[in-house]
Every structure is written in C-alpha cells, then in structure tokens.
Records
---
Amino acid sequence: MTTPAQDAPLVFPSVAFRPVRLLVTCLVITAAAVLAAGLSGHLLAGVFFGIGLLLGLLNALLVRRSVAAITAQDHPLKRSMAVNSATRLAVITVLALIIAFVFRPAGLGVMFGLALFQVLLVATTALPVWKKIRATGVAAPEVAEERNPGNE
C-alpha cells in the first residue's frame, strides 16, 4: 500500500542559506541600483528595485521559518507546505503588483528586484553545495554508473 503524495511525510534537506550575507548583498546591489538610477534621472526606480530585493529576502526568511515549523511537527505533510508556499507567494506577488501599479513606471523596479533576488538566492545556496560536492568527489548515481559500467 502506498501513501498518496499529498499525505506523504515532508522531507526537506538543509541548504546553505545565509540570510545575513544575502542582506549585505542586497544592500550593496540596492546602493548600486539607486546610484545608477539617480545618475540616469530615475532615482525612484532604484529605490523600488531595492524594495523588490528586500521583499525577496523577506520571502526567503518566511520560507525558512515555515519549513522549520512544519518539519517540527510529528507528521509533517507536503500539503501544508504547499498551501503555506502558495499563500505566501500570492501575498508577496499581489503586494509587488500593487506597488508596481500605483507607482508606475518606477514601481516596476519591485518586480525586477524580486526576479534578481531569486537568481541571487539560487546562486548563493547552490554554489556552496556544488563546490562541496566537487571537493568531496561525490557523484550522482547516474554518473557513478557511467564511470563504472561493470558494476551491475
């Protein structure tokens, strides 16, 4: 008998998430964006870009908090994580769209800031893991099988 996917226990691997480093990176990028936008005569676009970066960081912190709360339960379910994620993303997206609409065209910087934050988040969490994998020589099972075809 198998467990339906929505009722299966939630297993969430630990990741190399460093919020302080991301905050500093976001502040540096925001300062550069504000400077560049100010020099081009669109200061508010840079400010809204920084707001988008900070909204992305807020989202990442809320993800960490919700994962910790859900996985601490006796029987964590994928459904609760999915509902939590959908709700959080909907709220942040609606907030960003409202800012973009009310303060258009400069407010669109919020959307670009959110998008760039996702790239930063993936880069800052995936690269350390990738480096650790390369340093330890751990290979994916498919790659290991290709290297040793006689192990069947």
---
Amino acid sequence: CAHASLPKSRGTGLDETLPGAGPSCNHVDEVWPNLFLGDQATAANRYGLWKMGITHVLNAAHGTMFCQGCHDFYGTTIDYHGVPAYDLPDFNISQFFFSAAEYIHKALSTPGAKILIHCVVGISRSASLVLAYLMIHHHLSLVKAIQTVKEHRWISPNRGFLKQLRNLDLQLQQERGC
C-alpha cells in the first residue's frame, strides 16, 4: 500500500491538506464517478435530482432540524438512507463509517446508479462519509481521499470528524499491513 504521510502540525495534522477554498462552492459536485456531494437545497429539489439522474440519496443529517428527508419525500424513484449525524466535534460519526460506505458501495455497484450524499451545507458530515467510503472501498489514505474530493469540491470536516477519520486511516492501514 502506498500511503502519503500526513503533514505534521497542530490538531489532527491535516491542517495543510484542508485550507482554503477548493475549485467549487456549488450546491452539488461530482467528486467520484457517479458520486455527488451536495447540500440540503440540492436534496430538496426532486426535479433537479431527476435531471441529474440521481437514484440514491444518503442524508448525513437525517432527522436534524434542517434536514428532514425521508423515504416518503422521494417516493419509489430514489432509494433513501438516513444517517442521524450532528456537525459537532464531539459527535461520534465513526459509528456510521462502515454502514454508510456499504450503502454507497452498493448504490454505485448498481448499473446506471448515481448517488447524492448530502447534509445541510455539504462540507462536513457528508464529506466525512464520502472520505470514509473512499478509504474503506478504494483503499485511499485519508490524505489522498481529501485531495481527491478537493479536486472537485471544497470540504471542511470539523476537527472531531477529522480525528475520527485519522483513526479510521490508521485502523485500515494496520488491517491491510501497510
């Protein structure tokens, strides 16, 4: 396994990987083939989702005040999965890394499928789940996953999420013998 070493600095050590705005501050961006990272405004626009060809939605802020998405809203045309995460540094988002990654992987394994992963703004909770997916199913290091997503969208997972992603990175490296 080739893993880029993480930059050394304060906090999680990822400060040099995440600073500044990336190429996009759009409502939604394709950050991996057929994988779209976006915000609540995108998720609430059923016609826009239909035009994009979205077949699956993962809501990383399910049940929170601003993200009330559910199966009934999308009907039978879109498969919905809700993750009740809060964008707080002390929230344990890692409990959802593997289940969300599996949902994304299954969706993208379906011929013709396209998935939207969103939260309220589309930069912290949903981005963290996309990063975990890339690490778990595509064997990217955390640094490489961040770089890959940032080529298409500006993201900013909170410090607590970055720490949990760093722990996932170390766990996966150890399991893979890297």
---
Amino acid sequence: MAFRSSHSLGRPLIAPTNLTKTPSRNCKFSIQNCSLDPSHSRKLVLEVKDKLEKEHHSLPVGQNGRDDEDMILWFLKDRKFSVEEAVAKLTKAIKWRQEFKVSELTEELVKSVADTGKSYVHGFLDVHGRPVLVVVASKHFPDVHDPVEDERLCVFLVEKALAKLPAGQTKILGVFDLRGFKTENSDLKFLTFVFDVFYYYYPKRLGEVLFVDAPFIFKPIWQLTKPLLKSYASMVRFCSVDTVRKEYFTEETVPPDFRD
C-alpha cells in the first residue's frame, strides 16, 4: 500500500487548556464522561464547532462532518483540549475524508484486493473487547497490487473495525502476521501509511499493534520505520503466535490463522 506523500510524524507538545486537577481517568466517547468538567467540555466543543462553521463553512455537516460533536470532542482530547490544534487537525481530517471518498467505500469496491486475504477484520473481539484488524504480510506484494486499491482496503477495514466498537471501548487491536514474510513483501510506505492514517485521521483509535513471529529479514525494515513513528512505536509488541493465542483470545475467539 503506497502512500503518495508520507507525512512527518513529529508530535508537537501542546499545553492543556484549563484541565481540572482531579486525577485523570479513562475518557469515554461522550462529553459527560470526559475528565474535564462537563460544562467546560461542552464549551470547548461548541467553540470548535463555531470556528469550523465560520472559517470552514464549505466542509460537510452530519456524521464525521464539521458539526459532529462526538468527533469534535475526540479530536479535542487528542489535541489535549487545544481549540486551535483541534480545529486544524479536524479540518485536515474532514477534507481527507471528502477527497478519499471514505463514505463511498463498500465491500464490493474493495472486493478484488480483499479476496487476496492480505487483510481483514476478525469476526471476534480480543479479550480486552477490542475489534481486531489482521494484516497477513506474506500476501502483500507492492510490485503487483494496485497501491490505490490497497489504500482503499486499508481505510475500509479501519472503518469496519471502528464500527464494531462495543460500548465503552474506543480502540482497536492491529495484528501483523509476519510468518512467511520475504523481501518481496517489504513495503516501508505501507507501514508509514497505516500509522499516518491512524495519527492524522483516526487519532487514539489504535490501542496496540502486534508483530507476530517477525523473521530476521524484517528487522532492518523495522529499524528504518521506527524513527518515523515516534511515540507510536511504543504501541508495537513483537510476540509469538502462542502469545497471541494465550494473551489476546480465547480458544473460541482466536483467528483461524492462529489456531494450533
């Protein structure tokens, strides 16, 4: 999956805006449950909403649009409640959704590349209640497959995984099955694209990434990729198939590819 213009993944340090001094707690996907005082949270959401309407009136409205208050709150949390930073990142994300035509992605549109089995959303949640997005690296051939179709499949599956989020859960698990990985499967741009998508357009939705049974030839690729990911690299865990089975699933829910 090639990404035409990879972005720098530098993370600016942003000061919180009037955060309460109470101990932090998990922030659910609603204004009322946020660690900020509800009235203050609401005020910031409306401030962002108003700025988007005045400064970016051409952006669409509705779900995932400039007036989607849940989406606004999510980006505010990501930007540590900095209104200006949230507006900037939201504007970029909403424009990207328009240009990429995310709302038009369907099973039929991505069927040809999905049929390769290179990536899919698992039918069960992991033991932490997270939807699971699986990538089978040995089935990815960047010199053969259309990178545009690969990008569409990637975004379609992210959307599909997020649609499976149960109440109270906010993040998904990414599993890279690296068994059988060879040089011809190598794609630095693919890894960069995946993490770019999550950082810029689906912030704080990726909870953990498992690199399963990584062969020796994968190590140099990781060493090249890791500096680009900055803090996101800390989400990656190298582990074995046995670890996936025992720590992330039950006997009934483990993906078929990872069964004994």
